[in-house]
Give the backbone structure.
Amino acid sequence: MSDIAPIDFAPLIEQQEAHGLSRPSLSYWQDAWIRLKANKRALVSLYLVIGLLLFTLAGPLIWRVDSAIQDLDQVSQPPGTNRSALVVDDYKPWFGDQFLAGAGLRLAEEATSQAVRVQWDALPGASGHRVYRNLFPVGEERAYGIPLAEFFDVNTLHFEDRLDLKRGRYYYSVVALGDRGELLDNFEMIEVDVQRVTTIAEALERGLVDDGSELLVGDQIDLSWHPLGTDYLGRDMLARLMAGAQVSLFIGIGAPFLFVLFGVVFGSMAGFIGGKTDQLMMRFADFVVALPFLLFMILFKIAFGIGPGESGVFPMLVALVLLAWPATARLVRGQILQIREQGYIHASQLLGAKTSYLILRHMIPNTLGVVLVTITFAIPSAIFTEAFLSFIGMGVAPPTPSWGSMSNEGIKTMLITPHELIFPALFISITVLAFNLLGDGLRDALDARMRNTE
Amino acid sequence: MSETALAKDTAPVLLEVENLAVEFDTYGGIVKAVRGVDFKVDHGETLAIVGESGCGKSVTVQAMMGLIPMPPGRITSGSARLRGSEVLGRNRLNSKEIRGAEIGMIFQDPMTSLNPTMTIGDQIAEPLQVHKGYSYRQAFNEAIRLLGISKIPEAARRAKQYPFEFSGGMLQRAMIAMAISCKPSILIADEPTTALDVTIQAQILDLMQDLQKETGMAIILITHDLGVVARMADEVAVMYAGKIVEHGSVDDVFYRSAHPYTLGLKKAMPTNDPSLQHKLLPIEGSPPDLFAPPPGCGYCARCPYAMQLCNVRHPDDFFLKETHFSRCWLHHADSPNKPQELYFRDKE
Amino acid sequence: MLLYTIKRLLQGIITVWFIATATFFAMHNVPGDPLINDRAMTATTRANLEAKYGLDQPVVTQYVIYLRNLVQGDFGISFTQENREVNDIIREHFPVSAILGILAVMFATVGGVLFGALTAIYRNRLPDYVIMFVVILSISVPSFVIAALSQLSLVSLNNVVGRTVLPVAGWGTIQHMLVPAMVLGLGTMAYLTRLMRSSMLEIISSDFVRTAKSKGVPPARIFARHQLRNAIMPVITVLGPAIAAITTGGFVVELVFAIPGLGRYFVQAVQQLDYTVIMGTTVFYGAFLVFMVIVVDVLYGFIDPRVRME
């Protein structure tokens, strides 16, 4: 103990500085924000939500393509497909009059998306012919595809197909018909690669080139660019997703804000007034809760009716607000009743605080956290509701796009052009995911603080 | 401590805890809740561990029993030997023979410490089924007998009831019946009376004392109530900020207090002795932040006699007699200040 | 307990009345004359309907007629299918929906409890991460996408195996029911898993589990006798609303998998504006759900001793 000097035994004067609680105290929201920032998933979700809002609001300013315009040369094109087209002359009628060299089913000229012209020699034993087109070669089961034309004589041996032609490979078949128009066994098939073409007039009309004079027949030009492809009507997916985001997020965020607001007002009024009025109000809320939600959404949608030219967004919003408020009302009422019994409220009242002060200073700040979490969790369910209704055809009316109605359209062709389903579904999923995780993070951040104060 | 250990005979003590340290990982960082605690207890003895909330007294015994969740908890050092064999760090299978069988435990809040969806009888019967291999019938009958021993009227009917049908005092009796069901050699009571009414507190303490007389078990009593200590304990360990600051027999600690913190606790305790009547004095300030424990004495910031040394260096053990020590620099031979109200060795 | 049940049943009847009233006035609010708008209606049907519902009389009279019919269990006659009673439609199609729903509820409950308990026990370890990832995924993807994707995988499964292992659509055998029921129950299962997880986490760190540990009860027994039963309680309380969610969620699954259930029929009726069918189905579903919630609540009383005693 030789290292202890007498000076060490002098009284400690600056006792307060020695040690004590050194961490600074934080306000409720500061603490919650720190916790939220520490939660990586919640933070990523927050960025995602901001990104989605940017996509919805700023997106259309950058990607200035009308979501309603149809690009008929590029229908149901997945993103990244070749979009070059050959410039050809304007369409001229064809009568199949010039005879072509060759035998069997053959192309009269190069197949283009303008027209596919075929000629064939009369099949043995046939009293007529039927022309089919298919996307797959005819196999054992004799699936010829869609019938294009029927000829009940053996003199017409040519056909011009202009039906909805796209770039790609088709299989044309010509099948022999019997006396009574029945299908015979013998047929011929050819494989046809259709080339995409456009005319000078069309290119000018769509604004693909600045000046038509430089464009010559035989040139290759690029059709308009669709980063995420096109839908079944040739509309730009990206533009539609942006327009759909406006509808989906408007309902998805607007409706929860409205019904949470209504619920807060209703619930806090019931909680404040108390007594018989409270009983009555909450019993009414119980009734509304008991209404089967989706059925009544549909019912209200029908009841409000959608006039021609209306999108149906507004009725859906009203129906959502009418049906979804009781949960928040119950929650807020419970919260208010709980807070009203807290010691600090009594203390505040003893010190002469007015009701308005109590509401502003104590009630609102202490329910805000719960309300915020409720809104965050209400958003994904509102988005789901919109998607669900649009899916069964009870949502927004076409042509107004929403992610739900786009999924509904996409699901019909999901085997052939999956991108029409994948993109809107992906957007719904990401949005719902982001808001769910954000809600989890918010709840944990706000809850933890509440737990600490116990 | 080591001197006294040598002095005793060679038979191992019932329970000996040495240098136990426990940490917790939390949002704010690592909390060093227990920072090296030693104590021992023998058959028929009652050791009281006293201290204010958060001083680490409950964590000490729960760590010993393997009841703190790990993670975030962690035992960083120390040993606990039951009859000379190590308890800490044993695998679960072995600690099964200790928990409930060798050491019984009761907790602070009987309302939440019992399973709300199981009958009282079933819960008391459970350790008998687990440790002694009793059939359900046997165990349940034994549970009824134990409830009777714990002075619960109509035990047979009560055994079929659920916790929510019991009052707090009754539940604590049931807890005790459960803890002693396998005739443990040690009963750990973690603030057993804190949640109860004063009148019921006395009954519970009496019950514990009666049972101790009958079975000769040791009791480790965790409490912040000096009245309970005075009534029950043979030995007292005063804990502050994760360390024991004073340790001795109940008379030594009460009447010959040698640490300013013990003194502070006494001053804050109400008494019914008119000769000792004084105004209750709170201890100013709050315990140190255990995220970054102070290098010196933990009590330094609140101590009226604090010295420069206290702030930088942890006090040694100063023995006032073989079984009584205090960790306070005031007992150092060179300390010029020897406050009247504290007990010093040279006063003898 | 009996008194409680009777009280709940009375409340339920009032609730059903409220549902019926809301349905009536919502449908009465539909713009235009429902009888004129409808092309599919014949003159006979029209005459029948006018007489039956007093459509030429004031709203209050119509409402009284409507309520009287309801009390007698008469939901009326379809607008689009001549002389077909709504009761017949419900009788024919509801059992299909009910079987699908029961299977889905079973799948959701068993899965939710099991996975929830697993994730809580393996908190922040691999099983927790894997299950919670799937759970988050199934909460985030719309049900019709999941339905479509599972149908797609059925197609490719059958293609790979070379025969029909599980049918892609339709109804009839247990093979038909399996995948649709799972798809239908998935969202609820995910929700219940999350609920069970947080409930289980709370129980794991509860005082009475600590007591059980201090008694030396082995972990498996603690899980079975102390943790599971207590953690399951909140799951049971939300089972009523969960059944409601599954029943109405059945629309999509019935549409995608071409199952002849009431949900698909309802959507069809909505698209054809078949008023009596819409109203009848809504009231029927509403009453069914109210009844299910009561059943679940009463059942809960039998499981939780605290409620049972009251």
Remarks:
- Chain C touches chain A through 41 residues (CB under 8 Å).
- The CA atoms of residues 196 and 232 of chain C lie 7 Å apart.
